[in-house]
Write a structure and sequence with these properties.
It is a single chain. The chain is an all-alpha fold. About 70% of the residues lie in helices and about 0% in strands. The chain contains 5 helices and no strands.
């Protein structure tokens, strides 16, 4: 029995234009939030507020994981990124419900109030981006487009 191997290739081009700018801004925000988290963790541990230090660490790691997954764009990394962004959104909602366990410099503190709610808006936009830019969804849109041309 001959086993024919079919090589799958991804012929999509790299992001250009506004998606690339959006991803760069997300990565810049992740670096800023990670740096602010390091400062907050150090301060809060020194003060004995371990819950605040832990939430700062979790939010920073979720931002970094989300950005790395979005930047990489592989199948497993997309899943990881989506999970990180959902976690970030849930943390922002938790920041609305229990703001006292978040440092004011934390992007989840009152859903990003310290940053004019931009982190939460970015999280919602990146989740929409991940849903819209799924390879299967893109292939379906391209198939529909080619069917309409015929």
């Amino acid at each position: 029995m001959a086993h024919e191997q079919r090589r799958l290739t991804d012929d999509r081009s790299r992001s250009r234009g506004w998606p690339w700018i959006f991803i760069v801004l997300l990565c810049f925000a992740a670096v800023v939030f990670a740096w602010r988290a390091i400062i907050a963790i150090t301060t809060q541990v020194h003060l004995g507020h371990y819950a605040i230090a832990a939430t700062s660490c979790v939010v920073a790691l979720a931002w970094i994981g989300g950005c790395m997954g979005t930047l990489h764009n592989g199948r497993r990394m997309r899943i990881c990124a989506f999970a990180c962004w959902v976690a970030n959104l849930l943390l922002a909602i938790l920041g609305l419900a229990i703001p006292q366990v978040f440092d004011p410099s934390n992007p989840a503190y009152i859903a990003g109030k310290s940053y004019v709610f931009l982190p939460t808006c970015a999280i919602v936009l990146v989740l929409i981006w991940h849903i819209w830019s799924q390879p299967a969804a893109m292939a379906a849109r391209q198939s529909e487009e080619s069917q309409r041309r015929r």
